[in-house]
Design goal:
Length: 179
């Protein structure tokens, strides 16, 4: 997967970034290092389809930031925390591993992916580093799956041994499409 240079899209005047999903993350979750997270977003929360996507990820407001060892985005299979097989790797500044400081957010590099507003979306990431803290939101339109492990399982299509936190969004605060 090759990231699409944002400036190349904007300079050509072909469109602009449009919000497709917004989760107003409003609380901190600490102790998130050495953990695999998978988040599912209900289609009812996705308002716009598109072929070029970027994500906004949010760190905790008061304790510490987080390090992502790798992150992927795609469609869920419909069975637990599994991808359907169409997942693509997400980058920040051209790197698959990145850090977000306390009380800040990061916007990923744009990537090619067909986001369909009629289907649920899923992301997976492994948080490494020490003392990671992220933002969360309790909302029934989101599911979070987690597994404590030093092994990065973000790229796996089929994931096993995960626990479910029903009705909670973590880390991902916005999905945008270039339209």
């Amino acid at each position: 997967m090759v990231a699409i240079p944002q400036q190349a899209l904007l300079v050509k005047g072909l469109g602009s970034w449009q919000q497709s999903m917004l989760a107003a993350l409003n609380a901190d979750a600490t102790g998130q290092s050495g953990i695999n997270l998978r988040g599912e977003v209900a289609a009812t929360q996705i308002s716009l389809s598109g072929n070029t996507v970027r994500l906004t990820l949010q760190a905790a407001a008061a304790t510490s930031g987080f390090t992502v060892d790798s992150m992927y985005f795609g469609k869920p299979s419909g069975t637990g925390p599994d991808f359907s097989g169409d997942q693509v790797q997400v980058f920040v500044g051209g790197s698959g591993s990145f850090t977000v400081g306390v009380n800040s957010s990061v916007v990923t590099d744009p990537f090619s992916y067909t986001l369909d507003e009629t289907l649920n979306a899923m992301w997976a990431g492994h948080l490494g580093g020490a003392a990671s803290s992220i933002r969360i939101l309790n909302d029934s339109n989101f599911l979070t799956y987690f597994k404590v492990s030093g092994t990065d399982e973000s790229a796996l299509t089929v994931a096993s041994g995960y626990s479910l936190i029903s009705g909670q969004a973590r880390l991902l605060s916005k999905i945008e499409v270039f339209a």
